[in-house]
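I hope you will forgive my troubling you with a question about protein structure. You will find the record immediately after this paragraph.
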Amino acid sequence: MPNAAPRFPRCDQTAAWQALRAHYDASACRFDLRDAFAADPQRFARFSQAAPRVFADLSKNRIDATTEALLLDLARECGLEAHRDAMFSGEPVNGTEHRAAMHFLLRNPASAPVKWSKFAIDGVADAVTEVQATRQDMLAWAGQVRADAAITDVVNIGIGGSDLGPQMAVLALDEFVTPAKRFHFVSNVDGHELGALLQKLKPRNTLFLIASKTFTTAETLTNARSARRWFVEQGAADAAAGGGAAPDVARHFVALTTNRVEAQAFGIRTTFGFRDWVGGRYSVWSAIGLPLAIAIGADRFNEFLAGAHAMDVHFCSAPLAQNLPVRLGLLDVWYRNFHGFTSRNLAPYHSALRRFPAYCQQLEMESNGKRVDMDGHALPYATAPVLWGEPGTNGQHAFFQMLHQGTDVIPVEFIAVKTPSHALKGHHVRLLANALAQAQALMVGSGRGAASPEGHQHFPGNRPSTFLLLQRLDPASLGALIALQEHRVFTSGAVWGLNSFDQWGVELGKLLAQDIEPRLASGDVSGLDGSSAGLLHKLREK
């Protein structure tokens, strides 16, 4: 089946790319933010905008009106709007797997009068109806769990998108989480993680959610089988000591998967599924979001979906020049391919967003960490930057030294929240002051001429940053923030000519692990490289 993605010239073959290169070489390579603000008192207004639930200040980036105009020309020549419309029309934009990428349907409200409200996907007459029915069943079941006082602990066992999304969201929305339950997330196949948790749990008070799209993920099934073994053995021991029946696996284990057959073979009766056009890193809106639905309840979960849907509408309808995901995605292309910046730092100034950098790291690097285009041809230009970060103000006492004075220029993306959810006097104003000050310091430095550029206390400044501001961190704003990042990644991927929805790069290591695992027991090193053979021998030494 041919790739159904729209056909457009590769970005480096467009007139806009050549114009951007000439623009960079002629003047943009010497762009100085301090001069730009001195020359234009309205720069903040020109390079900031509001989008659903998010205000963005782009004025501290190395761009001017010419740069943005040329980047928009690049987007048009690369067919960004056509790529976007193809995705929102249910076309198989994931060409290597011959699938649509319709995660946006998962947050589509039943009554939304939008063009993507009805499809016939994989023989389903109305995909939206199916999504709505699954959501209704999931939220009703989540309500039952919330009302069940016997369940005190909910354990989500998954990895990748089946872990990072719900874990990040439950932590981010802690203010709205029911105090009657404790939520735990196990992802690593390292038994230390699961073993330490199980010591704190009681079988009859614990609900396990086994989250695996295919129900074949090795790490998840290893943890799930160990959890089931502990549940059966410890449950029987507790029952024998206290009398009564042992707790039932079928009542305490639930599967979030597309593979109901394997889940039922595992002993699970309750399953919540989703279609294969939902990629793992885009699945928090689906049944994979069940732990979040249990944590915050149906109404709040629907607010979470509504915030994301509002950003979908913005991405689909706002002109490119006022389209925040587009502007951010094009800025990423500008920095990666013309300035040569190799990484981007994400600095959320809110403790509840402490897992947001890890979530975005998977979203961007698994989506756009590709070296070939949609047709499998090697690319002559760089793609996804390394994305990394930690919450402020912790990062200020860790890696901000490099951001200010290191040899690499690393754009920083600050995220701040105007209204706190706590009442501790003085804390939030100090937190916000630090966020503003760090962004200012990166730009202004120590002042040109104020210190020797050779001195240890010299700050060169002119280091770019973006500032995203939320009124408050609630389900709707978090949903909008996540969808913003999704569409931003789609934008840069479309310009680079990538398939942002497959992830073949994770498969090779899995395949080799299947070969090496029995060798650790047998000691057979035939066919292995010298390093792997030597390490295997070391691991087997008594």
Summary: Residues 290-317 form the longest helix (28 residues). DSSP finds 19 helices and eleven strands in the chain.
